[in-house]
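Exercise 7. Given the encoded structure of a 393-residue chain, write a plausible sequence.
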């Protein structure tokens, strides 16, 4: 049997692509994953949803995606679907210094794109997040239509909705080779045999370097491990309190409520590059915990005495400009890719799934994929964010 499309990878990106392929009319779509749905890097996500970016193309994808997260069950026509959305808003603050101008420009650009963004005084910010001090903040933006959700639930939601529309999702199958005839895609060879299709979509995240092995086309993505801590402080970080991005901290920390009372916190900059893609749990040195704890206590004074409740590591698929590669690879007709989300792919996953499905089916895309082309790394027209290296981009 030949398929309309084969999707490699069943994370939030691959399941979203598969759902949208079926919703746009594709038949005989198959998703292949060597593991299980959402169990790649998606299950390690901090889940933060915002439209705040200094790259306007990302703002547009995030805005379209937020509309899906907000109405997830209705969008999927599945009453039981839930994204686990907590709509608590997103606060971002910068003191005087190098991050101030990028923040001012990004907030203004968001407003120009029609997104509701409020500028808060330190007093107003403290009303929303009373456990935090804002006395040195020179600029504070608040995005009410933001918060966090659960990437694993979202991947399973997309997967179930895709299956209801006839998509086959096969777990425990390894794609070993991309099959080409006359330079065109004709399918894939796997641990369970051959699957035929003139269209293969790679949503392989840190494992996208398979593409380089299979086609010889450079795949500029590296695996970068990050750690996430859950801290229990004497005062709760309630789920009604906004996500907070601290551009003034050395690690550009991001924080949010976790489990209703704890704080989830992680660094927003670069992590540890791994020699090979691998999403197994890594060590988190005590020094690292102490160093993050000190930065948290600086900003959240009551967390001086906080304890470490839990911790885990997760791996980003980082490209040289910290933005994804999306679209066709012109040198290999039939191959479409979506990789390199650089730690911020969850919040883009609904819109990315739809535009990649449109591209794979030869339909006009809702937003142009040209800025996200692999070609940018040759032409130098990079999608570089103004905050420097890091997932806020
Ligand atoms: C610690 C951490 C925090 C994050 N926080 C946020 C956040 O707050 N907000 C946000 O928007 N984003 C965040 N992200 C990023 C976001 O979670 C990811 O961009 C997104 O989940 C990636 O989804 P994916 O489908 O591309 O990848 P994955 O979930 O990794 O899926 C890829 C799948 O491909 C499969 N695969 C690969 N190669 C093959 C092969 N050859 N054969 C078969 N199967 C294969 C793998 O098994 C895997 O299941 C975070 C990420 C991490 C790690």
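Solution.
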């Amino acid at each position: 049997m030949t398929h309309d499309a084969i999707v490699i990878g069943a994370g939030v990106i691959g399941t979203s692509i598969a759902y949208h392929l079926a919703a746009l009319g594709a038949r005989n779509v198959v998703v292949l994953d060597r593991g299980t749905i959402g169990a790649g890097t998606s299950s390690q996500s901090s889940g933060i949803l915002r439209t705040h970016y200094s790259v306007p193309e990302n703002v547009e994808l995030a805005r379209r995606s937020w509309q899906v997260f907000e109405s997830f069950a209705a969008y999927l026509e599945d009453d039981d679907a839930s994204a686990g959305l907590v709509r608590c808003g997103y606060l971002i603050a910068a003191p005087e210094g190098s991050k101030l101008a990028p923040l001012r420009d990004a907030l203004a650009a968001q407003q120009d794109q029609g997104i509701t963004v409020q500028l808060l005084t330190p007093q107003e910010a403290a009303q929303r997040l009373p456990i935090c001090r804002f006395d040195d903040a020179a600029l504070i933006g608040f995005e009410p239509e933001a918060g966090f959700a659960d990437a694993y639930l979202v991947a399973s939601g997309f997967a179930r909705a895709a299956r209801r529309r006839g998509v086959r999702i096969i777990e425990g199958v390894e794609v070993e080779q991309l099959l080409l005839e006359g330079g065109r895609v004709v399918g894939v060879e796997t641990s369970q045999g051959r699957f035929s299709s003139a269209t293969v979509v790679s949503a392989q995240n840190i494992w996208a370097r398979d593409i380089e092995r299979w086609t010889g086309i450079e795949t500029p993505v590296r695996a970068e491990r990050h750690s996430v801590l859950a801290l229990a402080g004497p005062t709760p970080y309630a789920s009604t309190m906004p996500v907070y991005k601290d551009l003034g901290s050395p690690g550009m920390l991001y924080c949010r409520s976790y489990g209703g009372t704890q704080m989830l916190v992680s660094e927003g900059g670069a992590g540890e590059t791994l020699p090979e893609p691998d999403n197994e749990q890594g060590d988190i040195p005590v020094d690292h915990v102490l160093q993050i704890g000190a930065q948290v206590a600086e900003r959240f004074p009551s967390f001086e005495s906080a304890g470490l409740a839990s911790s885990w590591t997760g791996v980003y698929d980082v490209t040289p400009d910290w933005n994804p590669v999306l679209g066709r690879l012109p040198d290999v007709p039939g191959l479409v890719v979506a990789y390199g989300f650089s730690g911020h792919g969850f919040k883009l996953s609904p819109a990315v799934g739809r535009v990649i499905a449109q591209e794979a089916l030869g339909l006009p895309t809702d937003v142009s994929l040209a800025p996200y082309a692999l070609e940018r790394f040759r032409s130098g027209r990079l999608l570089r964010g103004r905050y420097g290296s890091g997932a806020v981009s």
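Remark. The mean pLDDT is 96. Students should compare their own answers with the one above.
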